[in-house]
TrEMBL record:
Residues 8-168 form the Glycosyltransferase 2-like domain. Pfam families: Glycos_transf_2. PANTHER family: UNDECAPRENYL-PHOSPHATE 4-DEOXY-4-FORMAMIDO-L-ARABINOSE TRANSFERASE, UNDECAPRENYL-PHOSPHATE 4-DEOXY-4-FORMAMIDO-L-ARABINOSE TRANSFERASE-RELATED. GO terms for biological process: lipopolysaccharide biosynthetic process. The keyword Transferase applies. This is Glycosyltransferase. The keyword tRNA processing does not apply. One of its GO terms (molecular function) is undecaprenyl-phosphate 4-deoxy-4-formamido-L-arabinose transferase activity. One of its GO terms (cellular component) is plasma membrane.
Amino acid sequence: MQYPYDISVVVPLFNEEESLPELVRWIKRVMHAHEFSYEVILVDDGSTDRSWDVVCSLSAEDNTLKGISFNRNYGKSAALNEGFKRCSGEVVITMDADLQDSPEEIPALYDMIKNQRYDLVSGWKKKRYDPLSKTIPTKFFNAATRKLSGIKLHDFNCGLKAYRQLVVKSIEVHGEMHRYIPVIAKWNGFTRIGEKPVQHQERKYGTTKFGLERFVYGFLDLLSITFVSRFKKRPMHFFGTMGTLMFVVGLGITVWLIAQKMFGVYFEGRVRDIVDQPLFFLALVAVVLGVQLFLAGFLAEMISMASSKSNEYLIRDRVGSLRK
């Protein structure tokens, strides 16, 4: 397949007017040194400074540079998603606009996708120039993500990543899911995921745009993407299994209490009433919840089957008359 460009560089940005000219010059210098054909897509996520004016000015001077401006701040995931929709390079590179990601890493990342046949390569900032309030929670976040996803990456949230074009065209990033693009890619069948140690620069201009709340939101998003990825096409497998298990446990306890009652009446003449035992009410709750979970799975399965995208599957390639 022929692509218009070797590389598309997608850069989400928010209030980075000072760093943009230097970043664009740096990318251009690296691309020309390695004779890549390329495009740079700057996605302004509702900046309140002069970032968009700078993008327009830079674009007027260089036709390889393209820009998108949001009406308000939607978040990094939205910016990446829009950039992915519009990029057309064979290899797609993402990087942050704050100059902490080095464009000098681009040729090696390109080689890993193009020649080593990786689907996705994530950067790993071995040495970080961030405060402890950011690095320590990041270590816990990465450890939890490795455990739940089974993907052996050290730095899931590194902004410097490389993708085959098919990967970015096959996934949708929303909310705060940009942290979990490797997880989303894996659940879409792109399992050749690599990692490359990259240089992390000290922030030269401005301040970080992310607070500690991102780690709380990030953990909740991880649980969400793990659940959706595994059970989106088969919700009954989750809800039905949990519902059946709870129903069987509740029913089993109820039967045991009734048998105990009958045994006591027959051999001892009197026994404690079933409704006087807390275990009976726990069993009743388990039965009710079991039925509700089963019905929830049944309804979710019907909604999934009725969805217009329920039978859309990712096709890697075609040959012969099915090529197009």
